[in-house]
Amino acid sequence: MSENQWQDEIYRVLKSHDVRHIAYVPDAGHSAAIKLAEADNEMTSLVLTTEEEGIGYLAGVHLGGQRGALLIQSSGVGNCINTLALNQMARIPLLMVVTMRGDWAEFNPWQNPMGQATETVLRSMGVLTWRADAPQDVVPLLNGAAGMAFNGDQACALLLGQRLIGEKKWVK
């Protein structure tokens, strides 16, 4: 798999699991999947004001008989903590794809606290997590997470490490 091909593959994996809704806060790491979703007449893409809105939206999508995924950055996981109880208590499936910040080679120290806590916070709220740091890991891990979320009514998250996404540079 080429260096950035994994970004398009995220969208293809979601489609293969019959995901019809993508809720997201704009993020460069998710830009390929977002653009593909917006161009697809069978896909609804919803721009969120804040990440926790996506959890309620996707719960409604599930209750309406469809599937969705939440595309967010690790800094937004902190906004979701209380809302994640909905999925745990009601056993509503939730699939999250989380681009990591506060990870390897982070230039912005404000990203570090939540970036370092993301996986622990998700697990503490009952979310099953996996981490991809290499392009060849993305498809199998996302397939597995989607299967567990949608077939087992689980909350699952694939964390996309900063080494996978690439080092961000401060531009003045």
TrEMBL record:
Every Thiamine pyrophosphate enzyme N-terminal TPP-binding domain range: 8-101
SUPFAM superfamilies given in the database record: Thiamin diphosphate-binding fold (THDP-binding)
Alphabetized Pfam families for the sequence: TPP_enzyme_N
Presence of keyword Cytoplasm: no
Keyword flag Lyase: yes
Keywords: Decarboxylase, Lyase
InterPro entries: THDP-binding, Thiamin_PyroP_enz_TPP-bd_dom, TPP_dependent_decarboxylase
GO molecular function: carboxy-lyase activity; thiamine pyrophosphate binding
Transmembrane segments: none
Name of the protein described by the UniProt record: Thiamine pyrophosphate enzyme N-terminal TPP-binding domain-containing protein
Protein's organism: Seohaeicola zhoushanensis
Taxonomic path: Bacteria, Pseudomonadati, Pseudomonadota, Alphaproteobacteria, Rhodobacterales
